Amino acid sequence: MFLAALALSLYLQDQAQPDAQETEIEDALVSAEEDLPPPPPTDAASLIAQIDEAWAAYGELAGELGARRARERFLAEQLLPVIARNDLDEGAHGDILRETADTIRDVEGANTAWAVAQLDPEYFPILYAEQTRMGQQILNWAERDETAEGTIVAALEGVAMMGLIDGPSYARRADAWRVLTGQPQLFGTAETCLNGTINPGSIEEQATLDERRLGLGLPIMADAWTEERLAQACGEDVAGAEDE
After folding, report:
1. Which residues lie closer than 8 Å to 87 by C-beta, 6 or more apart?
2. Are residues 183 and 233 in contact, defined by beta-carbon separation less than 8 angstroms?
3. Phi-psi region of 138 (alpha: psi -120 to 50; beta: other; left: phi over 0)
4. Exposure check for the chain: N or C terminus, fewer CB within 10 A?
5. Could you give the CA distance from residue 231 to residue 226 in angstroms, rounded to a whole number?
6. Is the distance from CB of 242 to CB of 187 less than 8 angstroms?
7. In the prediction, which pLDDT does 22 show?
């Protein structure tokens, strides 16, 4: 009698198991659906509101950016066809380039300085997320200023954290700039040389280091900086970065 009851109990458990698995699958599917962003609106009122909101937020910036791009394009359109000619008087190419250099430098310099001024660390990630093309153009101009790397790195942090640019690449860029300027690393990706072996050097806020790394798609520090790697010999001027 006991064996029969035990067998019946096991049978009922086996029968109930698929139902439990199905419930777990259904719960997972429901959770995944809840995490999905809502579908884009299709009604006129919502779409009109979106357009009006974007215009109010970015219309002026778009106009300024467009005007500045037009100035650079206009100069190029005037200069390049002339320089490309092969029938000019002797020395004309050099004279033209020399006399127009100041104008080109002034226009490009003004646009570059304006772009750097747009890289507010709080504002720029929002701009990049909502108006990516404008954000990319501003970033391209700002990168013409070799002294603006710190400003660029700060502005891109929020963009990287949102997953809008490659996280590991951003981490390496940020750490390289910090090492260059004598600051502790944030993500521990850059290689320095300590006592003849490769080392990440000083790192800011080490207690949350792995959290920051994982947030950008990097492995935890222990997996990236193994004992074998830390034992590698190096010269005095190592400036490499970890290969993620």
Report:
1. none
2. no
3. alpha
4. N
5. 9
6. no
7. 62
pTM: 0.77
The whole-number pLDDT of residue 149 equals 97
Dig out the tokens for 36 from the structure: 């999905």
Q: 23 is written with which tokens? A: 């419930």
**Residue appearing with tokens 């108006």:** 131
Nearest to 210, CA basis, from 194, 230, 190, 186 = 186
**DSSP label of 225:** S
Distance CA 107, CA 68 (A): 8
Rg of the chain on CA atoms, in Å: 29
pLDDT of residue 4: 52
pLDDT given at position 216: 95
CB atoms within 10 A of CB 171: 27
Phi and psi, residue 166, nearest 5°: -65, 120
Max distance between CA atoms of the chain, in angstroms, equals 114
* Residue tagged 């959290």 (tokens): 211
List, as one string, the DSSP characters of 117-179: HT--TTTHHHHHHH-HHHHHHHHHHHTT-TT-HHHHHHHHHHHHHTTSS-HHHHHHHHHHHHH
Which amino acid, one-letter code, is at 75?
Answer: L
Dihedrals phi, psi of 43, to nearest 5 degrees? -85, 150
Low-confidence ranges of the chain (pLDDT < 70): 1-34, 236-244
The model's pLDDT over 202-229, given as tens digits with 9 standing for 90+, comes to 999 989 999 999 999 999 999 999 888 9
Given 3-state DSSP classes, what are the helix, strand and coil percentages for the chain, each rounded to the nearest 5?
65, 5, 30
Distance CA 193, CA 185 (A): 14
